[in-house]
Each structure stands twice: as C-alpha cells, then as structure tokens.
C-alpha cells in the first residue's frame, strides 16, 4: 500500500505544529528534525557511545521534534571513520 502526502501551502509557523505519522499514529511535537551525522566522538579503541555523545545529543532535546541518530556501524571492520560508534556485540 502506497501512502501519498499532499503538499499544501503553509506558513513557517506550521513548523511548530505537531505532526502525526499516518501508519504508526505516533506524534512528534513539531516538524523540526536534526539530520543524522557522523559525530566522530567515540573512543577509537572501544567504539562505544560516551559522555561526549550524551552531551552533544542533550543540546538538541526539546528543540527538535525528531532526532535521527548519527553514523552507527554494525561491523567494526567497515567503519567510515575511526571514531564511529560500533554496535556489533
């Protein structure tokens, strides 16, 4: 089943209005999203999230309706960078 979104003219103030996703019916408080990025903050030896990640992501809490996690690898042999988070265990 294909879902089509109808784009209607709107004002910038609509960015602050809630958005409900049609399939899950989950709602986010606004239409602002923080895109995924490669943080490069993990320790290169253990590759796990650390206090620097928590500090960085806590700065976005409350402002963005949706926060997409960064570049998280599932196999340490194929990292994009030495300081990527790896969740392979």
In short:
This protein is 9% helix and 13% strand.
How does this structure look, described?
By secondary structure, this protein is mainly beta. Helix content is 9%, strand content 13%. The chain contains one helix and six strands, in the order βββαβββ. The strands form three sheets. The chain has a two-stranded antiparallel sheet with strand order 1-2. The protein has a two-stranded parallel ribbon with strand order 3-4. It has a two-stranded parallel sheet with strand order 5-6. The longest helix has 8 residues, at 51-58.
List the main descriptive attributes of the protein structure presented here.
two-stranded parallel ribbon, two-stranded antiparallel sheet, 1 helix, 13% strand, mainly beta, 89 residues
How far is the N terminus from the C terminus? 35 Å
Order of adjacent strands in the largest pleated sheet: 1-2
Derived structural class:
mainly beta
Average pLDDT confidence is 88
Number of E strands: 6
Our count of helices gives 1
Shape: elongated
In which range does the helix fraction lie? under 10%
Biggest sheet character: 2 strands, antiparallel
What is the beta-strand fraction?
A: 5-15%
Instruction: Output the helix-strand order.
Output: EEEHEEE
Ranges with pLDDT <50 over ≥5 residues?
none
| Rg (C-alpha, Å) | 17 Å
Please render the helix and strand layout as text.
Layout lengths: L18 E2 L6 E2 L4 E2 L16 H8 L7 E2 L4 E2 L11 E2 L3
Parallel strand pairs: 3-4, 5-6
Antiparallel strand pairs: 1-2
